[in-house]
Every structure is written in structure tokens, then in C-alpha cells.
Amino acid sequence: MKHFYLLLALSSFLVSALPAAAQISIDEVNAEQEGVTFRDRLKSTPVDVDYFSLARYKAERAAIRKERNYLEIKADLQGSLTSYNDSWIAVSGGDNSIALTATLFLKHTFTKNLFTVETIFNAKMGYNRMRVETTNDDGSTDSNGVWFKNLDEFDISVSPAFKMSKNWSYGSIFKFRSQFVNGYVSRTEQERKHLKSTFMTPGYLDISFGFTYNCPVKKFPIVINLSPLSLNATFAESDWIRRRQVDKDGNEIKPAYSYGIEDPDKTSKYEGGSSIQIDFDRTFGKSNYLHYKTRISGFYGWMTDLGQKNKIRDYTEYRLAYEKWLSGGQNIKDKPRLPIHPTVRWENTLEIYATKYIKTTLNFQLYYNRAQNLDVQTNTQLLVGLTYTFKNK
Fold first, then answer.
1. How far is CA 189 from CA 147, 183, 199, in A?
2. From CA 129, how far away is CA 149, in angstroms rounded?
3. Are 380 and 364 in contact (CB under 8 A)?
4. DSSP 338
């Protein structure tokens, strides 16, 4: 039995040592091609990094406009009223009167980088009413209340400029000045023959190119404009005023000489020269109860003066030559002329605020224009009334 197990183990060993082989056959398979579609059932939301917000855009644009633009509007209404009844007038005398003055001031400044343009509009209109006595043709007198203009002026200026440094800039100034309504000789002389001025008679246009200095000291905010090249134009569009002038007795002055325009066939004159303008504007006190501003401007038409014909410097010689010219043919080309004098205008305004809406104003103006008058012209006003100021920042 032991020999049988030994023989079986030996046979198994011999069988496992021999090599083995097998044959396999594979049949050809033709598989059909089909398209495969992947489906994404989840909703996708695109996210843009530069998300646009209309509200944010409008807010940014409004902030930029407010930063670049400064707007100030000031309106004043000032006046006085005096009234007496008949009993008072019979005992103590007196006169009923009304005085009203309205002013409007607008200032807009646009700034972008180094460029700045400033626009200023200033208008003043004043009337007063007093009782005056007029004599009729039959010798009787009538007493009536009459309105008479005591203040009428408006001016607009546009000043574009480019900054050169912290305190200096270069640019130009365009200024126009005239009045709204007719001006007459006096309260009792308000007919057409007494007309002295009207809209665009006179009218003034100033154009200057130069440099502007802004003082950096806040307590001394002075601005100086120096314009080596300037043009001054004077207009008198009313033929009635320009061609017909009367003296204090009502007699006509011939030839007509209105606002420096000597030729009666012309409605304007132009002079070239240089100009200067100095501005000072400051408020005082913690509540800004005191406000003072002044402006002095001057123009000298030296370019036109150099080419002026028949110029006589001595005034006595000029009067003799002028009287000789009057007795002659009165040709405007032969008329003797004095040298062109500088034009000076000085404006002062002092405002005292009792409250935010009540103030007292003192105005003083000095004007010298030899083409209009040989003497210096002055104007002073003291006003009390209401005021309102709007500022966007």
C-alpha cells in the first residue's frame, strides 16, 4: 500500500513537469456605432466679474458733477416805505414814498483737471415812487405819485483759464454790461425827448487775454488779472440818443457826441490796449455775518491812441481847435481829439447779516470815463431787506 502511494505521487510529479497547450477560436463581431448625449439637468448661472449697476453709475456721475461744478445763487429784495396821512402832512408836512431794489447774483464754476471756466451774472434793478407837482398849461398844478428808476444795470462775464502753477493761470475774460429799461433826465422829465439811455445804449464789451494770480493766503483772497492784450467796444444802438443830445436847458447840442462815438453814422467804437482787474472777496466772523467784496478794473487803449489823428495834448489848444472846427465844415475826419484816457471802474459792496435772511447792504461805485464825462462819476446806496442764498456745496 505504501508502494502504491509512492507511485501515485511520482506519476503526478511527472505529469506536472510536461508542457501543456490549448487552441481557442474567436468569432468576428460587428458592433453598431451610436451617438451618446450627456445631459446636465442642473441650472447654470453665468457670473461676470464686471457687473454693471445703473444706480451705482448714476451715483458716481452725480458725485463727479458735484465735484467739478460749483453753483451759487443769491437773490435780494430791499427797500423802504414812508407813509403819512393828510392830517400829519397838514401839520408837519412830509411825503409818501416807496423805494424798492432787487438784485440777482449767479456764479457757476466748472473745473476739470487744469481747466476752469467761471461764469458770473449780476443784475440790479431799483425804482422809487414819490409825489411830484407838475404845472399845467393853464397855470394849475397837479400832485401825482411818479415812479422813477434809480438803479439799472446787468453784467455777465465768462472766464476760461488753464492752470500753470499753484497760484498762476493763463486765460481770457469776456465781459458784457448794459441796462434793462429806459433812463430819463429826471422824475418830472420822462418823455421821449428826455431819453438818456436804454438797452444797448450804452453797451460795453471787454475781451482780454493774459495771466491771473491767486493769492494763497486765505485771509487775503486777492485775485489779480493782467491782460497785455485787450479790446474794449462801446455800443449805442439808439439813433434817437446817439444823434440827438440836449443840454440842461433843453437845447440840442450839435454835433451829437454820445458815449464817445463821435461819428453819428456809426453805432459803435472799438479800442485796443491793455487792462487790469483786481478782485477781493472775503467773509468775516465764525457765522460769516460780514461780507466785503471789491473790484477795481482799468483799461487803457494805447494801441488806438498811437494811431489817432488830429490829436492835441494841451486842453487849451484843443478847445481853440475845437471851436474853430465847429465854425468850419465840421467834417468828422478833421475833428481835433484829445489823447485817450484810461477808464477806471471801482465797485465796493459791504454786507452785514442780522440773520440768515435779513441783511444791510452798502454799495459804492466810482467810474471815470472821459469819453462820457470829464468828471468822476460816483454812486452810493444803503439798503436793508431780505436775502436768500443757495450753494450746492
1. 12, 10, 19
2. 9
3. yes
4. P
Position of cell 465796493?
A: 348
pTM: 0.79
What is the total residue count of the chain?
A: 393
- Each of the 393 residues of the chain gets a pLDDT tens digit; together they read 555 555 555 555 554 555 555 555 555 556 566 666 666 666 666 655 566 788 888 888 888 888 899 999 999 999 888 888 878 877 877 778 889 999 999 999 999 999 999 999 999 999 999 888 777 777 777 778 889 998 999 999 999 999 999 999 999 999 999 999 999 988 888 888 888 899 999 999 999 999 999 999 989 999 999 999 999 999 999 988 887 665 556 566 554 557 888 887 889 999 999 999 999 999 999 888 999 999 999 999 999 999 888 899 888 898 899 888 888 877 888 888 889 999 999 999 999 999 999 999 999 999 999 888 888 999 998 888 999 999 988
- Residue 134 CB neighbour total at 10 angstroms: 11
User: Which domains can be identified in the chain, with CATH numbers?
Assistant: 70-301+340-391 (2.40.230)
Amino acid at 159: S
In 164-289, beta strands by DSSP E: 168-178, 183-184, 195-197, 203-214, 222-235, 245-246, 252-253, 268-284
Alpha helices per DSSP H over the chain: 2-17, 54-68, 86-92, 239-243, 302-306, 315-327
CB within 8 Å of 170: residues ≥ 6 apart: 161, 162, 164, 210, 211, 212
CB neighbours of residue 271 within 10 Å: 21
Q: Is 200 left (phi over 0), alpha (psi -120 to 50) or beta?
A: left
- CA of 302: how far to CAs of 99, 171, 268, in Å? 42, 21, 18
